[in-house]
Amino acid sequence: MFQQILLVLIVAGGVFYAASVIGALFWIRRREPEPDSLPPVTVLKPLYGLEKELAENLRSICAQTYPEFQVVLSVQRADDPAIPLMRAAAAEFGSQRVTLSIADQTPRLNGKVENLMNALAQARHDVIVISDSDVRVLPDYLRRLAPRAMGTGVGSVCTLYRASRAERLQEKLELLTINADYLPYVIFATMTHAANFCLGASTALRRSVLDRIGGFESLRNTMVEDAEMGRRIAAAGFSTLVVPEIVELVVDLPHWRDWWVHQVYWDQNARYVHLPGYFGLLALKFVPWAFLFAISALFSPASLAVLGGAIAARLVFGALFLRFVLRDRDGLRALWLLPLRDVLSVFHWLAALVRGSFERRGIRFGVTREGQVISGG
Could you tell me the residue range of the domain that residue 368 belongs to? Predict the structure, then answer.
């Protein structure tokens, strides 16, 4: 009976992954109509520390081919090591384009939201784009994203992102987590309307919509602020669009502990956003289930065939997604690590299940069962 259950999980997980990849191949080829107008935009860029290739990330958002936009670079420490790069960007692009927000406060609840609150106070325009510090964009990024936030009934507009610039082994595992595991399921959920995603790394919304859902202030004690923002936007009667555009997310995990902490944090996000979906993630891990099936059958020829088939399916459909959806050569070169990543992901999942706190930017925060941040600093 146990082995039969494992076989069902293996087949179901493999079929669902294949369906997600095949669906994504069609979805990514959609083309949105060109916007009628290009409204003025303010980009909020919350920073914390000197991340890998940060100067290039900042320059990519400041060098947009967009008629009127402002970039607010925001930090929460007067001695933040990112400040010299912020000042350099302001000197290169001018104060009309780049505004600096430098506070001196310790993040107490959700540090990103508190940083965004400071940045928003400097915003000059109605259309707000949130762009995380590790996001790198093409010159036409704002043209493809921001105007769509003006659509009738639209609450927010998001782009997908793919991990890039992975150099160390743990960074390659992180890249595969995002590019070969997370994104296919996000696209599938978007296509089927199974979930209401608001991808906080790269999203645009009107200030009036933000005010309607309570502003950033109402999100500062929420662990997964982008999911809560998406939920509130839907509750207010607006839609969230995920457009078929992809930005880069520069991976910066210098130590193995950084990788472990971030993986557990990602799974905690899933746990607090939707507990049934969190357990669903475990059910979809068909390669670990295939390993367990082989162990339970004492590595019989049939069980090894099942294991080999599961690994082959994972690699083939992962390669299709990386090659034809993301155009990710780095991911293809690291693809051989994907079965290892899948097995290790079970341990991240278990750690996220029992942990009652999380770590972000080197600061530990407490969190309730409902995903509310209760302490920090």
Answer: 2-26+270-376
